[in-house]
Each structure stands twice: as structure tokens, then as C-alpha cells.
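Memo subject: From amino acid sequence to C-alpha cells
Keywords: amino acid chain, backbone geometry, C-alpha cells, three-dimensional fold.
Body of memo: The sequence and its C-alpha cells, given next.
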Amino acid sequence: MAGKDPIASRSGQQVLTGANFALYTLIVITLIVVVNWFVSNHDKRWDMTPNKKYSLSDQTRKILKGLSGNVTIYAFDKERSFGERRDVLGMYASASNHVKVKYVDPDRQPALAREFSVRSYGTVVVSAGDRHMEAQGDGEEGITNALVRVLKGQRTACFISTHGERNLDSTERDGYDHFKKQLSNENYQTETLPFLQKIEIPQDCTMLVIAGPQNDYLPPETDAIQKYLQGGGRALMMLDAGVELPNLTKLLGDWGVTARNDLVIDENPVAQIFGTEPYMPLIVKYGTSPIVEPLNGRATLFPISRSFAVSKDSKPGVSADTLGDTSTDSYGVTDWNPQIKEIKFDAKKDVKGPLSVAVAGSITGEGEKKTEGRFVITGTSLIAANSFLTFQSNRDFIMNSINWLSADEDLISIRATPPESQHLTMNSAQMNRVLVLGVFGIPLLIVMAGVLVWWQRR
């Protein structure tokens, strides 16, 4: 029997190898084409950063979705720095066909830079129609706040300041400096009203804010507030536990809301995960108001709060509903005051939970116009204090309340989280291990692997 021709056998193997190579090459090219087609026709991004740096917040997407007119965002910078702006600004352009982004080198287009009063590199300006606003920073929060200012115009929040209310300019833990800055970021200017000097609410007040009064209001003052709401005014009232306010309490009663003189204690074990105390109720159950609709699945904290009861038989033209309730493990300590040190449940007089710690409602005015007044009432003014405003969703709760009161429902959402730097913290032992492995260990392993392969081949 004749043996196989080695030349023909070798030639057949070469043909088979060539065919396999061509097939694999064709498969790789096909995969590349398919992936490119999918990416081109399906604009999908996955943001794996801890703070969602490359994703727009719910609020920003909601605003962009509701745009009816064109908006232009100008990024003024040196041409070589344009790439640094594209990650954030590109998301705005991708989210809405009404948004255009223009990158401008102020050295090459000085006239345009002068038109928008640009003084430094890295300036971002949002323009719509004949209005424009410089963003406070080049991050999402600053750009979206500038967009809100351009679209909505100026609002005014008037704070009463003659009954021991919170200090808007205080940087202390219980001050309102952070709240004031947040209002300014969202285009609200703040004014203080010396109510005792002139019992009158100016017409340019978008809303009235009563933040933690330590003394009761006089009947003429509550009458002025009632008249203001019946005429279509808006009011945010943040009361505190342990402060007796009979006249204000009577006013709330006219709105179908009973302000209990108690301290809410919530012993829900889930709250311990956040490191809170029982006298700081953690709220995860919300009502149906647009204010709290975006907060489902999120937590807010109401430290040292009183509770409310909402009447089911309100007066004609008055409606009220709860915004947030405590857990079934809560109760209200009746007649509590700061001098009481030992707290325990007394079934004879204390109220068992769930308890409402925030209420929202409306008042329809009398007459032909039928104007609608709105109010939001919370059981604590600490929710907006410097030490608690940034806790979980407290900022969203307060600012959503502000938006609802000013009839800016399209702004109600979850806001952008301020960017935080990521740090790697190591002790000296960990740093030494990294040094040994990185500088000596891994290179040595590579050399040893090379020597081993060389020895096996030899």
C-alpha cells in the first residue's frame, strides 16, 4: 500500500489553516460591524460611578423633557480644554432636541464673550430667548440651576423674623445659611419681614415662610396670614415640638389641621441603620401629594418633631392631606417639653402611631376669582437646618415643597447630587504591602515566569 504524499498532506493542512483564519477574520469583522450598528442606533450609557457623575438627575431630565423653546448652553474656554466640558454638556444636548451646546474660545470670539460678560475661562452660560444666566460652576447642579433661573424668573421667599424664628444667615448647626443658599441656587431671593412693626405681607412675596417660631403670633398677625392665603398666597410653616403656639394652632385648625402638643418617638429598628435616635423619626412612608411622589423608596429625617391630625370633615373650600407618616412603632409624648428627661410611652394620654409629621393643603378664596392658596406644614424646623438639610432626601422634600407652593410642579423631583471626591485611605502597613507588591513583587513574578518558559523550551 502506497503511503500518503507528505507534500499533499502538508498542502491540505495549509489550506485548512488558511480557511480557518479567513473564517475567524470574517466572524471578527461581522461582530465589529454589528456592535457599531447597535451603538449607532441604540444610544445607551451605563454610569458605574458611585455618584452617577455621568448621568443626569431626575430633576434635570424632567426639565429638559418639558422644554417647549430652544435653549443654548455656551461653554467659554480655551479650545484645548473643550474636551473637559463635553461629558456633562453632551448629556444635556442628548436629552433634548431643544438644547444646543456651543463651545466658544473667548480669545477667538471676544465679541460674544463681552455680550455675556464672560471674565474667566471655564464659564458656562445658559441662554433662552432674550434672557441668559451664568452657571455657578460647570457641574450639573450649577447648569440646571441656571436653566431654572432663565426659564422661571425670580421668586421671593419672605421669612417672618420677629418671633424667635431660625436665623437665615447663621452658619451654626441649627442655622439656615445652607437653606438660604439652596433657595438662591434655585432662583429664590429671600426677604425678612419684621411682622410686629408692620403687619402686612407684600404682594411681591411668592410665599411666606414661618421657620420655627419660639413665641406665639398675635391675633392680628394670624388674621393677616389667613387673609393672605385666602387671596391666593402660599405659606410654608415649620413648627417645633415643645413650643406652645395657641393662636397659630387655632389658625391651622381653620385649615383642617390639628397641631398636637407632643414629641414624636419612633422606635423603628430600621432607623438604626442610619444611626438616628428615636426622637428623630425616619420617614419612608409618604402620601399622594406631588411633593413627595418622587421620594418613594427614599428616606427623610424629622428631628424633634410634633405630629398632626388631618380632619376628614374640613370646611368648604379647604382640603388637607398628610405628606409623611412614622412607622407603627412610633408614638407621640403628649405635653412634652425640653425639661422632660425621661421619655416612655403612657397609654393613658400618649398617641400611638403611625403619626403624620407633615401636611399640605389648599384654601379656595371666596368671591368670583376663586383663587387658590396653598400651605405646607412640618412638625419640625430642624429639617431645613444646616445640620440636617443634606441628610438623605431632606433637601428634596423642602425644595419640592417650595416648588409646589410656587406652582412650579415641573421642578418637583430628585435633584443632582453635588460631586464628591473619591479618596483611598490606607495605613502604613497597607502602603508597605502595595509598595512591595507593585515595585518588587509583580516585576519579579514576570521575570520568573519568563525564565520558567525559557527553561521548558530549552
User: Anything to note?
Assistant: Residues 58-147 form a domain with the Glutaredoxin fold (CATH 3.40.30.10).
